[in-house]
Amino acid sequence: MSVKKGPKRTKSNRARRKLIVSDLDGTIFFIDNSIILASMELLGMPFDRKKVSKLEMSIKRNIYNLAFSKYSDNLEPNISLMEKFFKMKREGYELIILSAREETLRKQAERNLSIYGIEYDKMILQKEPWDINIEKWKATIIEEYVGGYDEILLFEDTQKNIDEIREKLGGRYIKYFHVDKNGVKELKE
């Protein structure tokens, strides 16, 4: 008894696989309010993200962890990006959340996404707490997906991350989008 095989999948007749890779903090959620509250609690003065980024790694890590746990209700949703993701999910895109947030904060991240109805296919968080180069880590993760998708869209709020990922992976399969409070801008080479 033989099994009848379907038509051979070719580029012209197979479904296009489309992927969104998005950062979480500063991209899907603006984090300024949470960072200020956490720095007030830990340092006694308000520090914005730029100032926090210049602090010693252990202090920075403590501020971010407090911001994403105790003050996570103060994260500001990026409604326009969320609406874009809702539409793209309906169009067949898969969504991977790729965040430098520590794995220990997964439940809080899932809660934040759930509140706004963000459906994602996978969330990848850092297992090792902040002792790696975040840009290279993200590039390595994204590289694993390049061959399996016809289109990859990367949404990121940090230009340094975009530059590092673009340097490692190029632009052949990936479109890069910079996100901030002013909106989303596609970055051309």
Secondary structure: helix percent: 25-40%
Number of domains: 2
**Distance between the first and last residues' Cα:** 55 Å
What do we call the CATH homologous superfamily of the largest domain? HAD superfamily/HAD-like
Report on the biggest sheet: 6 strands, mixed
Tally the beta strands: 8
Would you tell me the overall average pLDDT? Answer: 88
Radius of gyration: 18 Å
CATH topology of the largest domain: Rossmann fold
Residue runs with pLDDT of under 50 for 5 or more positions: 1-10
Secondary-structure element series: EEHHHEHEHEHEHEE
Global morphology: globular
The tally of helices reads: 7
CATH architecture of the largest domain: 3-Layer(aba) Sandwich
Strand content: 15-25%
Structural class: alpha/beta
- Give the CATH class of the largest domain: Alpha Beta
- Strand arrangement, major sheet: 5-4-1-6-7-8
